[in-house]
Amino acid sequence: MILDTQLLYGLVGIFLFSLGLSSAFASSALLRRILAINVAGAGLFLLLIAVAYRGPEINPDPLPHALVLTGIVVAFSATALALALVKRLRETDDD
Fold first, then answer.
1. Residue 46: helix, strand or coil by DSSP?
2. What is the spatial distance between Cα 13 and Cα 39, in angstroms, rounded to a whole number?
3. What is the pLDDT of residue 2?
4. CA nearest to 87, candidates 30, 41, 45, 44
5. 31-60 burial by CB neighbour count: b if 16+ within 10 A, else e?
6. pLDDT in tens, 6-28
7. Which of 51, 42, 47 is closest to 75 using CA atoms?
8. Distance separating alpha carbons of residues 87 and 91, to the nearest angstrom
9. 28-72, pLDDT tens digit by residue?
């Protein structure tokens, strides 16, 4: 059986989200947690794109695409903030 595109993207999105979430809870290192949360976010973005797909002849729903684009910008900003906070935390721990 050949998987169609929407099901494949949905399953990969669920897998990435669950992998990232479980890694975020399992790891004690802050950098690994930040990366795991980014992987979970990528899985969620992929799942939203899979939900927006309606078929080859029909235009996709634009709302999930707009949410994904906004989410990418927010995730990038949150990652930069988290990395800056981890850097500051390590600098204060060294003193």
1. helix
2. 10
3. 57
4. 30
5. eebbbbbbbbbbbbbbbbbbbbbeeeeeee
6. 899 999 999 999 999 999 999 99
7. 42
8. 6
9. 999 999 999 999 999 999 999 998 888 778 888 889 899 999 999
CB < 8 Å & 24+ apart, contacts of 62-66: none
pTM of the model as a whole: 0.85
In whole angstroms, what is the distance from residue 93 CA to residue 27 CA?
20
Distance CA 8, CA 65 (A): 18
DSSP letters for 61-75: PHHHHHHHHHHHHHH
CATH architecture of 5-94: Orthogonal Bundle (1.10)
Positive/negative CA dihedral, 62, 63, 68, 71: positive
Residue with tokens 């479980």: 22
Q: Hey, what are 11's tokens? A: 């399953």
